[in-house]
Amino acid sequence: MIKFHPTEELLVKYTQGELDASLCLVIGTHIDMCPVCANTVKDIEENVAAEMLNKSSRFATAEMDNMLEQIMSSSAPQTVFREPTLKEVSLEGKQFKVPPTLGRLGSRLGPWSKVPGSVWRAPVDIEGEQNINLIYMAAGAAVPEHTHRGSEATLVLNGSFADEYDRYDDGDFIYLGDSHRHSPQTAQEDCLTLAWLDAPLQFTSGVARLLNPFSSLFFR
Amino acid sequence: MHVMPKSRVTREYMSTSPSKTQEVTTEYLGKLLADVANTRSRRAFSELFKHFAPRLQAFATRQFGNEQTAMDLVQDTMTNVWHKAHLFSPEKGSPTTWIFTIARNIRFDILRKNKHRQNDVSAEDLWPVLSEEMSDSSEDNFALDQNILMQEIGEYYNVLPDAQRIVIEQIYIQGKSQQEVSDELDIPLGTVKSRTRLALQKLKELITAHD
Ligand SMILES: [Zn+2]
């Protein structure tokens, strides 16, 4: 049972196409996993569409007839198929199923690299920036306490992790604004997440602060 | 908000009065899309165009503030409606919603092309609105055709004699086999078959006559 969902405000912006492609990817992947949000988005779509297309402009007749003629004599656009290119990811001898939205962008998944603390990450290259990663935490792993200059969205694809606030399981979507501090960790179970950052994270405690100049190497 | 060059203002498209436009129902727009999909009806598409193009233009002008870009969005969106009407499914939402999502995707791609040159993610990856299902999901395609068919047929249904309508309902709506219908209604299989044939023939006549 999914406990944590994107806010309605985020879902509206998602539906309007007002968010970064990379954040849309995280939210779209949550929607693949979450029938509740899939339904909400359907409602939002109906409402947004009705509102956005409710006013008509004054369209000159000649221009209209001209465009109509051009369209009806145009050749058909290329046919597109929607088959996901990535069905699952393998890591540490385990296979994880990939939801279709992420699967359709699967060719953009980069190689895995190891990060201190039994954590692995693989960047997903969206718009040439690397602010979105698959992050795999082995059982008993911890990311040092950190904060963000920007926002962070995390989607649990498989497994479970906890921070100071709560415990998160398959499908849970966590959105943290800036100045939120937290230290994610896993217990008996490992955890695969899709994580989006709009600025590099900042480690806040003890020795981990030494990592700050390099933090962008880890999660961005 | 949207300033038209003077020369264009001479004869504006105002023939549909606002009150009349508002009465255009979801079902009617769906029927027009089905006609475009099934028979490439230019008349149906013209009606769709006259309903949606000015709305898309108002939307795009608000979004871009640039008249040429706005017109490009209208043309791209309606071009997809003309060629891809078969991808519309009333199950998934209203025609207005479907056309809005096409426009939303085109807008998303236009805005991103201005910023990033290569290796762009396309909106279609995030929101597959215009993608064909792969062949292994042919059942969905079948369901879609069936839906459009049922939607059209619905209007002509009541014309059928009761005996034929009951048989058609059981087979095409409830999904029973002709043998099951024969057993349940306690009529010979041959009668079920002939009623089905006659009913479909009648429906076909009605549909083609109204096109
Ligand atoms: Zn949800």
UniProtKB/TrEMBL annotation, chain A:
CDD domains cross-referenced by the UniProt entry: cupin_ChrR (cd20301)
Pfam families, sorted: Cupin_7
Coiled coil region boundaries: none
Record-linked SUPFAM superfamilies: RmlC-like cupins
Residue ranges occupied by any ChrR-like cupin domain in the UniProt entry: 111-193
InterPro entries linked to this entry: Anti-sigma_ChrR (IPR012807), Anti_sigma_zinc_sf (IPR041916), ChrR-like_cupin_dom (IPR025979), RmlC-like_jellyroll (IPR014710), RmlC_Cupin_sf (IPR011051)
Name of protein: Transcriptional regulator
TrEMBL record, chain B:
CDD domains: Sigma70_r4 (cd06171)
Keywords, comma-separated and alphabetical: DNA-binding, Sigma factor, Transcription, Transcription regulation
InterPro entries (UniProt xref): RNA_pol_sigma-70-like, RNA_pol_sigma-70_dom, RNA_pol_sigma70_r2, RNA_pol_sigma70_r4, RNA_pol_sigma_r2, RNA_pol_sigma_r3/r4-like, WH-like_DNA-bd_sf
Residue ranges constituting the RNA polymerase sigma-70 region domain according to the UniProt record: 48-115, 159-205
Gene Ontology biological process terms from the UniProt entry: DNA-templated transcription initiation
GO function terms (MF aspect): DNA binding; sigma factor activity
Cross-referenced PANTHER family: RNA POLYMERASE ECF-TYPE SIGMA FACTO, RNA POLYMERASE SIGMA FACTOR SIGZ
Protein family membership: Belongs to the sigma-70 factor family. ECF subfamily.
Protein name per the record: RNA polymerase subunit sigma
Species name: Aliidiomarina iranensis
Lineage: Bacteria, Pseudomonadati, Pseudomonadota, Gammaproteobacteria, Alteromonadales
